[in-house]
Design goal:
By secondary structure, the chain is α+β, with helices and mostly antiparallel strands. The chain contains 8 helices and 14 strands. The model has no long low-confidence stretch (mean pLDDT 83).
Length: 280
């Protein structure tokens, strides 16, 4: 282990020969003691350092040789390695995008606290198809929360595309929802409120809650709370700002209009509930 292989045989032979001579001229115990002493004389620090250095150099030489051989192989077969690298990159990219897509699709609206107990009420006409919304009168009945197993209810409708006016400037908007004052929309859905009091966001009629991107678009970096926005001739005040919606939600809106008068003109409403227990 500590002696070069090419010297082992001669060193062992010398030790054995010296031991036999000592055994003939002295006692066996003395001969054994001298054998041990002579053996220790060959165990030197320099030999240990040399072996360690040789071991390190051997490893470095192997790595260096491998790198050189690999580099020459790549240079000689550049097209082959390029095609393989391209295929590997495409394969890993497809796997990564597939994983991200599946994760996005299977986590729709799962960020809401009560996602497992949130339901949308659908309706069916006699012998007709199912509709995702209810007639406004039926929606109002549920909104009054007459059932003991209901915890929270929200009803909202979509507003047709229109221009929003802010300080004399007009902005086209297509993602606008409308609710009645006092609606529990922001209790049913846990969208992040970054400005305004979440407890009374929908308390006052003729108010609006807008997304962060719309707040910056309308008012720059000024505080939008209390500022006015016009829906046609209807003037409303900004009550709050919510963080832009994530991509994995089925709800798409940038403005939530709170208006009893406007909501009363709607024919149908989307109705969502949070159940205290799973309804059957």
């Amino acid at each position: 282990m500590f002696c070069p292989e090419e010297l082992q045989e001669s060193i062992i032979g010398d030790l054995e020969e010296q031991f036999e001579q000592n055994e003939m001229s002295q006692s066996k115990a003395a001969a054994n003691l001298l054998l041990f002493y002579n053996t220790l004389r060959f165990l030197r620090i320099g030999i240990l350092k040399r072996n360690k250095k040789n071991s390190t150099m051997t490893t470095l030489n192997l790595i260096s040789t491998f790198v050189k051989v690999f580099g020459r192989s790549v240079k000689s077969h550049l097209r082959f390695y390029s095609v393989n690298l391209l295929c590997l990159t495409i394969g890993l990219s497809v796997v990564a995008f597939t994983f991200l897509y599946i994760k996005n699709e299977t986590t729709y609206d799962s960020f809401h606290t009560n996602a497992d107990n949130t339901y949308r009420i659908a309706a069916q006409r006699a012998y007709g198809p199912w509709f995702p919304s209810l007639e406004i009168d039926e929606a109002k009945k549920i909104l009054n929360n007459p059932y003991t197993w209901l915890d929270k209810v929200t009803c909202f409708s979509r507003v047709p595309d229109r221009f929003i006016q802010v300080d004399g400037k007009k902005f086209p908007e297509s993602n606008v929802l409308v609710i009645k004052s006092g609606d529990a929309f922001f209790d049913v859905f846990d969208f992040q409120i970054i400005s305004g009091n979440k407890e009374n966001l929908t308390e006052n009629t003729n108010s609006v809650v807008i997304s962060q991107s719309r707040a910056e678009r309308y008012f720059g970096f000024e505080d939008p709370i209390g500022k006015s926005i016009y829906f046609d001739s209807l003037r409303v005040n900004v009550a709050g700002v919510f963080e832009d919606l994530p991509t994995n939600t089925h709800l798409e809106f940038d403005l939530m209009l709170v208006s009893d008068a406007y909501f009363a003109t709607k024919y149908a409403a989307f109705t969502y509930i949070i159940a205290k227990e799973s309804p059957e």
